[in-house]
Prior knowledge:
Blueprint: H1 6-15, E1 22-28, H2 32-42, H3 47-56, H4 60-79, E2 87-105, E3 111-127
Antiparallel strand pairs: 1-3, 2-3
Amino acid sequence: MAKGHRSQIKRARNANKDTRPSAKISYARMSVQKACYVLDVIRGKDVQTALGILTYNPRYASSVIKKLLESAIANAENNNGMNPENLYIAECYANKAPTMKRIKPRAQGRAYRIEKRNCHVTVVLDER
């Protein structure tokens, strides 16, 4: 357990906070695996190239991640005063979110479970 008053602990925790611009979407209706297919393609690329890739990628996840990337670019421009031409994708990852469980009726009175998976997607930008 950390020593000190609660305000000291909070101050120490906020001192080493990541100041890079980012955007996050919670409970996106796609599985982590399907989101990672798209994230692996754009990781490390500059934002203009990544937006071009996401625009013409046929996967559903690419449309969601494109909106997320545009939000991260707007955050960098408005909150941090960064130039959008110098930005690149430093980190992007998808984490598991709670799964919705549904029932599918089957033959002879049985029921199969359908799992509708969700994920949390995060995009972090940085300047070159």
